[in-house]
Design a protein that fits this description.
alpha/beta; Nucleotidyltransferase, domain 5; 2 domains; 5-stranded mixed β-sheet; 13 helices; binds adenosine-5'-diphosphate; binds magnesium ion
């Protein structure tokens, strides 16, 4: 089956699209992939409705605009790669998370956990002529899970090994790990967010350049700066890092308030970005030490996401994790920029086949459930 996966993550950098051939799950092949950057107005419009006060009209409009952009992104990739659009049999579309609260909060005197991804599946199905599975997270949450992370199911299929203990690390806006012991059964896999990925660095760079630059390309800022140990210690003094998995972190944890605290230190921008890079690397390394190593050997660390292209981060991780083979996921046949889009193609494939694809050991759900909603073309 040929399936397209479409992913838009918390970094708001753009739309990741992957086209994957899945004759069977053990013989998956990525045929093509791309990232289409969000335009500045689109990024700003999403930010304006992400975890903040806004008018519901803005949300509703974006909910219908995003699938238009997704359809165009997929169409463009097909044109570029000379892949007939109608050779694609199914689309898995994650949508854009604008709110995620997996710890119950009070509303109307009751407590509920909730999550909201926008980007309507019906519109995408109509514009492409392809059935769409979308809105994957609510089903897991309904079953008592945190609705995240969902990529571990794909990690398990793609990267497990009989002999080597493996950890996959995705450094997006948030950083997360999936830990897969040698010869693991699915219920032995754990996964969780370690803390910030790129999003603190992104905001600092954007602040320092008045919005001209949106991220620390190739680690140029942080390389020029000197991380503040004192500020780092203060930032790491957060109960989240001690909390046992399953756990998820979000934009709300590392948003503008967090950055304001850093700016208040008065350090120069380069030092702040260097400190943020060290925070990302340190929280990843310490999470692996605290929560993964006691359960399994860590032979390989397989890195994906935009942060894998930040050499400063990679170097820091190598130093902090001696004895671990650190490789980009591309070495295993899955390009680091495409991995999450590939994962949602796999999840859609599973839903289409009526198979559960959450890992209860990763999300905390009571049981495996078939994820998502199907929109027919
Ligand atoms: N060459 C690079 N150098 C440093 N950071 C990079 C580079 N390319 C991408 N990034 C970082 O990766 C982020 C995008 O990563 P991505 O995996 O798409 O995250 P998300 O899943 O949250 O959208 C960018 O915001 C940027 O911080
Ligand atoms: Mg992205």
């Amino acid at each position: 089956m040929r399936v397209a996966g479409i992913m838009t993550g918390t970094s708001l950098d753009g739309i990741d699209v992957a086209i994957v051939d899945i004759p069977r799950l053990s013989a998956l092949k990525v045929v093509a992939h791309t990232t289409i950057p969000y335009s500045k107005p689109v990024r700003e419009a999403i930010l304006a409705v992400s975890n903040r006060d806004c008018h519901t009209a803005e949300i509703s409009r974006l909910h219908f605009l995003l699938p238009e952009l997704y359809a165009t992104a997929l169409r463009d990739l097909c044109l570029r790669e000379e892949i007939p659009l109608d050779s694609i049999e199914l689309i898995g579309s994650h949508g854009q998370t604008i709110f995620h609260e997996d710890t119950p909060a009070e509303v109307a005197k009751q407590k509920v956990a909730s999550t909201l991804q926008i980007g309507d599946g019906s519109v995408l199905a109509d514009r492409t002529g392809i059935p769409v599975v979308s809105d994957f997270r609510p089903r897991d949450m309904a079953a008592g899970g945190k609705g995240a992370p969902l990529v571990p199911y794909a990690d398990y299929l793609l990267f497990r090994d009989r002999k080597r203990g493996r950890v996959t690390l995705n450094i997006g806006g948030i950083a997360n790990v999936t830990a897969i012991p040698p010869s693991a059964a699915p219920d032995q896999v754990i996964a969780f967010d370690t803390g910030p990925g790129n999003m603190v660095m992104d905001q600092l760079v954007s602040h320092a350049t008045g919005g001209k630059l949106t991220y620390d390309r190739d680690g140029k800022f942080s390389r020029r700066g000197k991380a503040s140990r004192e500020l780092l210690a203060r930032l790491m003094d957060d109960p989240y890092y001690m909390q046992r998995p399953p756990k998820t972190a979000g934009r709300e944890q590392y948003g503008s308030e967090f950055v304001e605290t850093m700016l208040a230190s008065g350090l120069p921008p380069e030092d702040l970005v260097a400190t943020a890079a060290l925070l990302t690397a340190s929280t990843i390394a310490s999470a692996i030490g605290k929560f993964v190593r006691p359960r399994q050997p860590v032979d390989d660390l397989i890195v994906s996401g935009g942060g894998a292209r930040n050499p400063v981060l990679m170097d820091e991780l190598r130093v902090m994790l001696p004895g671990v083979e650190l490789e980009h996921s591309g070495k295993y046949g899955i390009d680091g920029d495409a991995k999450e889009a590939v994962a949602f193609a796999i999840l859609a494939h599973e839903t289409w086949r009526r198979r559960p694809s959450n890992l209860p050991s990763a999300t905390g759900a009571r049981r495996g459930v078939i994820l998502g909603k199907v929109s027919f073309a």
